[in-house]
Amino acid sequence: MTAARWHVWEMRLRLRQCLPLARKRGVLHGAVLPDPAHLLQGTGKFMRHVKLGLGTATNAAALSRLIDTAYSDIKARVENG
What we know:
The structure is a single chain. The protein is mostly helical. The chain has one domain (about 5-80). Helix content is about 45%, strand content about 10%. The chain has 2 helices and 2 strands, in the order H-E-E-H. It has helices at about 5-20, 60-80, and strands at about 25, 50. The chain has a two-stranded antiparallel sheet.
């Protein structure tokens, strides 16, 4: 595994570990990602965010799909320039 791929994998793992503890997590290029569960909030041109809190119900499956989609999107942008 190349250093760049390891870095992307490590970032993905850390994002998954940190999300349940965070209140608001930004998603780069979230404005163009599909979000059928309407988890993304905000009106920025590129960024959107997901608000999370302890004790609040969150659709874990939809959040996992959103993380996977965001990861695939940013990985393709990095690898393809």
